[in-house]
Every structure is written in structure tokens, then in C-alpha cells.
Amino acid sequence: MKYSRIIPVLTLVILFASCRTGKSMQSEIRAIRSNLYYELSTPEYLEEIADTIYLNFIDYSNIDYYTTVKKARTIIVPLFIFNYSWEKFNVTLGESSLTQTYREFLTEAFLAESNSSACFNLRENRINAAPDSAYMLDVKILRNRTSSAIELDNVLVFMCLGDYSDFIFNFENYTVIPAVTDLRINVRLTKGKDCLLEKSYRVHHKPDYGGRKSRNSFLANEICINNMTESLSVATKQVVENITEELHGLMLQNLIHRPLP
């Protein structure tokens, strides 16, 4: 009788001990690195290029350095033999999980897109060597947040054989929620003292596929980081294409209305 009273208590202790903490998952996930990527898909501009825009240094990525994991919710259903727990962890991408800084990636994306699909050359103004009369482009990252979540289903089966021996079976299943990116970038194009364009561009990207499952905690963490970098890459592509398209139209109009030599 005394032993039968201990079993539920012991089961609860085991169940609570099996629950994960946000700090333990955060420690694991911070060891993972992932690449941002940019693939050109817009038509190449094949006409003559007459103008050059100088891109000033982008000095701030506007993203936290470390990826953070916070436990959002826990549900525990304790029974005599079968026990179930559900936990949700919110994950926010940090720059330390990337293989390069985001501002470097954004600079490379602007250079690749503009020098392929636009009617102007885009060059980095590395040492402020651009002439005073040149077209100057200032880029500021106003918001840069990518987040996801990991859900953990934990099933614990406790079997007592009656002779003071028992078996415990623990089954874990992770579900990685699709990542969401909220990106807002401001650009300012000037020529001398004249401001030709100043505008903010926002992209909210959320993929249309469902969550991805894994029985391995490390693999789930890796999927989560890769999903977030993919989401940030796609959002960056969308905003860079939008900005480049508008700059292309503006510079094309200036070229058309320029007096003939």
C-alpha cells in the first residue's frame, strides 16, 4: 500500500524532471550557425549603363547579437501510468547564429541585384571617395526581427512490475513552427544637396508550409535556425528587389529627360 502511494509521486517527479528549460535549449541552439543566401531571379538589364550610385556604409544590422529561447507555455497531464506534457518555446534569431553580419549580407544583396537588373552601377563608398556631385544611397535598417517556435510533446509511460522493479519509457517529439520575418528598411537617394528619394519599405514574410517534425532535439534546433535564416533571406530578397526596381525607374526617368550632349 505504501509503495502504491509512492508511485504517483515518483511519476510526477520524473515527469517534471523531463520537462525542458528555455536556458538548456538556448544553450544548444546558440551553437548552431546557418548561412543567409541571395539568388538572382529578375531579368538582367542589357542596355548601356551611364550612371553610378555610391552606397554608403550600412553601419547597423538592428538585430540582437544572441539567439534567444523563452518558454512560452507548459501543459502537464499526469496520470497513473501514462503521462503527457506539452511545452512551447519561442525562438528569436540573433546575429551570432549567422555566418556573417546581416549588414554585410544586405550590402552584398544590393550590389548583386543592382548590378544585374538596374540601369545603373552600384558601388560601395568605402573610403568616402565619391565626388560631391555623385548619386549617394543611404540605407538604414529600421526593423529586423525573425522568430519561430519549437513545440515539444513528451509522453512518459511508467510500468510497475510489482516486485519493486519498474520500467520507464519516455518519447519526445519536436515540432518546429514556420519562421516569421518582419523587415523594414529606409533608403535615401541624394545628388549633391538634392534629395531624390526617401522612402521606407516593409516586408512581412511568413511561409505557407506547415511545421516540421523531429524526434531529435539537436535536429529540431538546426531546422529552427535554418528556417529562420531562410525566412530572413527571402524577406531580404523581396525588399531589395522592391527598392532596386524603384531606383531603376527613377534613374531611367532621369536618363530619358537628360539633355543630349
UniProtKB/TrEMBL annotation:
This is Lipoprotein.
